[in-house]
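User: I need a structural model of Mur ligase family protein from Parabacteroides absconsus for a docking pre-check later this week. Nothing fancy, just the predicted structure tokens so I can convert them on my end. Input:
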Amino acid sequence: MRKIHLISITDPLVLELASAIHDKGYEVSVSGAEIPLEMAEELEQDEITSFGNGWFPDKLTKNTYSVVLGSKVTQDNPEFKRAKELGLLIQSIPEFIYQRTKSKTRVVIAGSRGRKIIIAMMAAALRRQKLAFDYATTSEIPGLNKHLHFSYEARIALIEGDEHITSVIEKRSQLEFYRPHIAVMTNLNWDSSQDHDTPEAYMSTYRCFSTSIEREGKLIYYGGDPVIGELVKDIRNDITAIPFEEHPVVEEDGQVYLDTRYGKYPIRVLNRHFLININAARLACRQLGIKDADFYQAVSEFTLSSLSV
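Assistant: Understood. Predicted structure tokens for Mur ligase family protein:
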């Protein structure tokens, strides 16, 4: 049984990642500073080895298959230094997610707005068609009860493309690791609170993301964003660029319907951006083999049962 150690269990996503890895049959150990009692009890219940509060470099040995770093692990962390001394495989969370989904069709939803609802609509459509899928998100997604899910049988992986820096050690954006077969880009809007100091640095991240798309891949992008429009001009020739706009609707007797060639589908609309995101999810699902009519039915059921205005 392969051993995997995760450094800094209190960092975002690390606890869920530990559980997801353990569920796949790996021997998992974790460490961290000031682990809350509730978290320690959860680890014990899940049979995940916790070395206790603090760092325990002596617990790492040559037979540890890999070490996964939380986003806040620093260069002087004793366990990180020990892992390097032993020559162990060291991965950030995005690197680990890529390795776990390497053999799957990866759909990465990126951009400043709409990622959550696009993933939620795609998940609803996939489930309605009984298509298994893995996922990795940084946000709370309606309809998904966890941030991470890995399986052996799924051939599709939905990944939320977060443009933030991977960790304090790895200064590259999380987006640069996923290498999508299908990339969805909503809109690009830099602000000074992000990890990127300037608009140019922010755009550089998305240029790297667009060049990381697998050969013969697809880029589904919002055609109403002039910033994305400039980026798409430089896309590789082997990548198919597919623009999307706001989906048309009609209103009858107080009910809003998606206006489609297959008929009218009742939906609950949150805002104008929601109608833009519907087309993004529809086109991505089409690339996965889901017919538009089936997608519309799934989204109608999802919005009427799961979303509130």
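Before docking, keep this in mind: Residues 101-306 form a domain with the UDP-N-acetylmuramoyl-L-alanine:D-glutamate ligase fold (CATH 3.40.1190.10).
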